[in-house]
Amino acid sequence: MISLLLQKHAHMLTGFACVFLATACSASEDQTGTKTQELRGGIEITGYQGVVDISVLPPGYQDVKNCTGSMISANAVLTAAHCVRWFSSWPNTGTIQTTINYYDPETGRRQVYSGQAEWFSEPNYNPDLKNNAGRANSDIAIVRVPKTFSNTSQDDYLGIYAGRSENLQLILWAYGAGLYTYSGKKDDKLRAHYFNVEDVDPSHIVLDTRKKVGLCKGDSGGPLIFPYAVTGGEVGTVTGVGSSVELFGGEPDVCANNDWGMDDAFYSRTNMEKLGPLLRTAGQECAIETRQTIDMVVCRPMPVRADTPFDEAPDTGANAEPEAPTQARISTPQDEVAQSDMTEPE
Which end of the chain is more exposed for a tag (fewer CB within 10 A), N or C? Predict the structure, then answer.
């Protein structure tokens, strides 16, 4: 299975074999581990289906927070709750000003939306929890925009993993558009890397980030992908959302300090027991569908309510989303479905 996945990602390997062989070298020539020089690592790629960067500016604030996310429907982005709900005194929903840029696999980074959006966080998320598995259990949110994303189709949106837990014990791919150096440099590029999985819990997934490649500020909310190998390529499915890194050794809480031997990255698992109610609250209708023989949860916007909170009228043009499917919406736990044949690190 691992060899198949590596073959499907062979286009990323050129010049970066050390990264994928998990040896002690970084994506740059520098192998000293110097915090101000070493690249965050990972492989710079043009894009990947559904992956976006998203800026978050709540009303009354001037500092923008940047995160990574996944387009899961024509008007919804899946990201981390801590990207949008900054304080425990805030409710579980609100509005932001945002710009969303899609890392199109063919054309690269392009804007698909800019304006006001509504966000919905998982009700159990607690912003006061420290960066660990407890926070990752519910660190998940949906950002919904009032019209469809520009020049996108259903093929551009990521499905949600609907397979068995044991499949996730191998390797998973992380995607992030955050900082790429420990000294804080950012270049609006998307990077990817695979990580060994340390633990798969019903509500979170733990990755081993002890190697030179790690997660940095701005990678939060990025998807953890389980790729199915299919004829002519792969089908990616979201298994988790980037939550946080747990650091040891007193390093600043910006990047996973890959020189320490105990660093972990935590992802909020996208099981439907947790995510299903949140998707419905965010106006999404989701059902199990098959894409190239792969079962996954696919979402589409519900019909727009008449009392939409946005001033902007919904998109009714050629880019408007087709009517939602008639399949029953998903509300069962992820593994039950499977068995029936189904970082801004802070």
Answer: N
